[in-house]
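A reminder from the course coordinator: this example appears on the midterm review sheet, so study it carefully.

Given structure:
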């Protein structure tokens, strides 16, 4: 017997709050990355979030559940947080927060593609068209990068690739959660995956730790990123993923660029170009088709 569909009031407020938190995270990650470097930035953010959630997990009696699923939750951490956060921290040192957030909207594209290949989800004509449109949007964005695409160290090309690697990891993680962790409480999944990411990044973070002590504002930025944009946000994300399914949960990336660009314009004086808006619209339409959010009849 099918479960009744969730009313929009049961998930939309959390959906919007998650978009605000993750949209603002680009701003805080950028501040931290310039002071700490990419991998230490990701590690500090993740470790702070894990430390915050562990006492909550213990208080809720979730340690026994975590022990039952520790292999899957910890191993999924690098896909859910470790690699993506390090990639975005690197990218934000070379491209704007707005462009990074728009590229982040390709997450459902990879999610739909991987679910099709791995989980056997149906990929009809409209979803195939959506995949093509989404990646065409990425090409549109890349064509508008000032100075052109360069794949040298520190070049814009590598920053764009880093964002796409991050969204690929998110897409794989969505299918892992759907296949192996759907019945696991979101707090257990969140805490376990964050500790897995923290452990995985610990050695490279310490090896690349900055020689100069980062300023207080950088610590504050990563504190906010860790406690609000990660700990709280990931609980919301996994809760949405379990309650509404990976495809719908990952469409939060549609809203993230709205808030990320808004914060970038207000606090960093970033400029939103017509090509960025056009590429963003193509990506959003493509991901909406690819994830099945809209499904026109195509013969």
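Designed residues:
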């Amino acid at each position: 017997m099918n479960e009744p569909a969730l009313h929009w009031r049961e998930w939309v407020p959390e959906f919007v709050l998650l978009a605000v938190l993750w949209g603002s995270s680009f701003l805080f990650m950028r501040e931290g990355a310039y002071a700490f470097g990419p991998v230490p930035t990701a590690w500090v953010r993740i470790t702070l979030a894990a430390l915050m959630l562990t006492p909550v997990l213990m208080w809720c009696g979730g340690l026994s559940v975590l022990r039952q699923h520790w292999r899957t939750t910890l191993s999924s951490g690098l896909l859910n947080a470790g690699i993506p956060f390090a990639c975005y921290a690197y990218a934000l040192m070379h491209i704007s927060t707005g462009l990074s957030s728009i590229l982040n909207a390709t997450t459902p594209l990879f999610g739909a593609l991987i679910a099709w290949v791995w989980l056997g989800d149906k990929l009809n004509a409209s979803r195939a068209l959506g995949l093509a449109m989404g990646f065409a949007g990425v090409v549109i964005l890349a064509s508008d990068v000032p100075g052109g695409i360069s794949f040298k160290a520190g070049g814009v090309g590598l920053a764009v690739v880093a964002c796409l690697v991050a969204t690929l990891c998110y897409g794989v993680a969505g299918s892992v959660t759907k296949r192996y962790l759907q019945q696991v409480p979101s707090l257990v999944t969140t805490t376990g995956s964050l500790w897995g990411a923290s452990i995985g990044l610990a050695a490279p973070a310490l090896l690349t730790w900055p020689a100069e002590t980062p300023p207080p504002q950088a610590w504050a930025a990563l504190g906010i990123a860790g406690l609000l944009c990660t700990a709280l946000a990931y609980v919301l994300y996994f809760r949405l993923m379990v309650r509404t399914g990976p495809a719908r949960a990952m469409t939060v990336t549609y809203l993230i660029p709205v808030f990320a660009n808004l914060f970038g314009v207000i606090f960093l004086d970033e400029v939103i170009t017509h090509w960025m808006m056009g590429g963003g619209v193509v990506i959003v339409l493509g991901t909406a088709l690819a994830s099945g959010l809209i499904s026109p009849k195509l013969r």
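The longest helix spans residues 216-244. The CA atoms of residues 98 and 261 lie 5 Å apart.
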